[in-house]
Amino acid sequence: MPAPSAPGKAYLVSRIFLPFALGYYLSYLLRTVNAVISPDLTRELGLSAADLGLLTSTYFFAFGLAQIPVGIALDRYGPRRVEAALLLVTAFGGVLFASGDSLPTLASARGLIGFGVAACLMGGLKGFTQWFPREKLASMTGYIMASGALGAVTASAPLEAALPFLGWRGAFWMVAALATAVAALIFFAMPEKDEAHSSGDLQHALRGVREVLMAGRFWNFAGQSAFFTGGFMALQGLWAVPWLMQVNGYSRALAADHLFWLNIGMLTGQLSIGAWAFRLEARGFPPLRLMQIGLFLTMVVEALIIAQQGPTLLLWCMLGVVSATGAQMYGVVAGLFPLHLSGRVTTSINLMAFVGAFVVQWGLGGLLDTLRAGGMAAADSLRVAFLILLAAQLASFVPLARAGRFKPHGMQ
């Protein structure tokens, strides 16, 4: 579907931003939904902590496996066709999850969902590089991340309130219908920009992946992606609620309220970045500096949560606010490479995030089972697990201090 030669703001918002935003809203809702339904799944299926971690993390595993192929496909075929096709896989996964009654079936369905939403954020970022000027990309990243935060908000207290009426199976039937509708919107309403697609065979595409993965400037950000972005997803998507219930002694409803405010904090942070990133960069405060400060504050807030110092509702909300700065990593790293590699760059850095989310989410579950089997109390085992995550974040933060030596592509 051709676009105007000089599309205006209303056109870009309605035909480019909004379809991508709806896709990422759905993606993030599905990423975090298990945090609220986990008690129901545990009770109905008799799951251990490791089982629950595995079931939830298959989303991240499949999502991570898809990233490199998705990056190649985005650069070759464009985000419209790739994201629309994959969302149909999401719809099928939703149907399978809603009708499943065993751990293998639900884990497989969760994996299909993760594979199906693998292009939702990356497709949006690829589309933004095609349609928006470079100086607007930080703001657009903030706005699309805010739509994801809204999905996470939906998957917290609102979902908890709806579960008595829908049940977790009904919720996934609705997910399947929504995924189908968003796929149709993206395919039929979004314009195409064929001239922006890369050419060449698969070997040529893989050389581009190798160019990204062999670059030191890429690996300078990989650890933060794994343990900050991935670690936050693991907490938000599963382990925040067990912490609040077992360490703080809250009910599931109160824990869901905390998850709601965590996601409200993330939404606030992303909207603030969207509104102010352009102005801050114009005043000499680039996205990299914003990310450095935000990730440092993330560790400070997590340390306060672990030490149980301060009001819990405020701390979890602030964790969402400061963690929002980590999303700037996609634009920062993409800016270090040529435009034709942007899809492969963003999906490669996203791969690191989802490898981290899978390792943290499943790894914490296995660690908790081991510690509890050794006689440690549930609350104490969670404290140990969270401290290990914080230590990994601290180690990965060190290279970020030297990241400023890398200059954006074209300025090197």
From TrEMBL:
<feature type="transmembrane region" description="Helical">
    <location>
        <begin position="218"/>
        <end position="239"/>
    </location>
</feature>
<feature type="transmembrane region" description="Helical">
    <location>
        <begin position="345"/>
        <end position="364"/>
    </location>
</feature>
<dbReference type="GO" id="GO:0061513">
    <property type="term" value="F:glucose 6-phosphate:phosphate antiporter activity"/>
</dbReference>
<feature type="transmembrane region" description="Helical">
    <location>
        <begin position="384"/>
        <end position="403"/>
    </location>
</feature>
<feature type="transmembrane region" description="Helical">
    <location>
        <begin position="313"/>
        <end position="333"/>
    </location>
</feature>
<dbReference type="GO" id="GO:0035435">
    <property type="term" value="P:phosphate ion transmembrane transport"/>
</dbReference>
<feature type="transmembrane region" description="Helical">
    <location>
        <begin position="50"/>
        <end position="70"/>
    </location>
</feature>
<feature type="transmembrane region" description="Helical">
    <location>
        <begin position="82"/>
        <end position="100"/>
    </location>
</feature>
<feature type="transmembrane region" description="Helical">
    <location>
        <begin position="259"/>
        <end position="278"/>
    </location>
</feature>
<dbReference type="InterPro" id="IPR051337">
    <property type="entry name" value="OPA_Antiporter"/>
</dbReference>
<dbReference type="GO" id="GO:0012505">
    <property type="term" value="C:endomembrane system"/>
</dbReference>
<dbReference type="InterPro" id="IPR036259">
    <property type="entry name" value="MFS_trans_sf"/>
</dbReference>
<protein>
    <submittedName>
        <fullName>MFS transporter</fullName>
    </submittedName>
</protein>
<feature type="transmembrane region" description="Helical">
    <location>
        <begin position="171"/>
        <end position="190"/>
    </location>
</feature>
<dbReference type="InterPro" id="IPR011701">
    <property type="entry name" value="MFS"/>
</dbReference>
<dbReference type="InterPro" id="IPR020846">
    <property type="entry name" value="MFS_dom"/>
</dbReference>
<dbReference type="Pfam" id="PF07690">
    <property type="entry name" value="MFS_1"/>
</dbReference>
<feature type="transmembrane region" description="Helical">
    <location>
        <begin position="106"/>
        <end position="125"/>
    </location>
</feature>
<feature type="transmembrane region" description="Helical">
    <location>
        <begin position="290"/>
        <end position="307"/>
    </location>
</feature>
<keyword id="KW-0472">Membrane</keyword>
<feature type="domain" description="Major facilitator superfamily (MFS) profile">
    <location>
        <begin position="16"/>
        <end position="404"/>
    </location>
</feature>
<keyword id="KW-1133">Transmembrane helix</keyword>
<dbReference type="GO" id="GO:0016020">
    <property type="term" value="C:membrane"/>
</dbReference>
<keyword id="KW-0812">Transmembrane</keyword>
<feature type="transmembrane region" description="Helical">
    <location>
        <begin position="12"/>
        <end position="30"/>
    </location>
</feature>
<feature type="transmembrane region" description="Helical">
    <location>
        <begin position="137"/>
        <end position="159"/>
    </location>
</feature>
